[in-house]
Amino acid sequence: MNTSPMPDTRLDERYSDEEAAAVPWSTAVAELTAAELYWLTTVRPDARPHVTPLIGVWADGALHFCTGSYERKAENLRGNPNVALTTGSNSLHGGLDLVVEGEAVRVTDAGRLRALAAAWEAKYGAEWHFDVGDGVFVNPGTGEAVVFAVAPRTVFGFGKAPYSQTRWRFA
């Protein structure tokens, strides 16, 4: 379930230590898969940014998240599906920070939603159990949630030991 197309990988030497090398895409995928928390940036109708933390899963070459259809981020996505999702560590001298840029696309296929619901529960535990309704996740305690997939167009990786900036571009 964690397949991913191979991107064009480039180290930006302007922002990298001399001994730095491009980070392999497989390392970025491992970090995206393991991350517990992501920050989603959307754009409000008046062009102001909206940033919020959320949980998600990396599956089928995309980062997936869910939200109530009435929430600010869902409203923003109806007007502009372009997003940035970030994750990483708060340390200055270690780790890899990632910025995923792409378009958030609704996931409504029941089979795919069931697989994603299972992935959510496997990653986050029974607290994050979802049933699948008509094109949505259903949680008895919180109601319905729409699910989005963000297949990356561009991903930036910021290494901090040594300092590096890797860019992965997808066709």
TrEMBL record:
<dbReference type="InterPro" id="IPR011576">
    <property type="entry name" value="Pyridox_Oxase_N"/>
</dbReference>
<dbReference type="InterPro" id="IPR012349">
    <property type="entry name" value="Split_barrel_FMN-bd"/>
</dbReference>
<feature type="domain" description="Pyridoxamine 5'-phosphate oxidase N-terminal">
    <location>
        <begin position="29"/>
        <end position="155"/>
    </location>
</feature>
<keyword id="KW-0560">Oxidoreductase</keyword>
<protein>
    <submittedName>
        <fullName>Pyridoxamine 5'-phosphate oxidase</fullName>
    </submittedName>
</protein>
<dbReference type="InterPro" id="IPR052019">
    <property type="entry name" value="F420H2_bilvrd_red/Heme_oxyg"/>
</dbReference>
<dbReference type="Pfam" id="PF01243">
    <property type="entry name" value="PNPOx_N"/>
</dbReference>
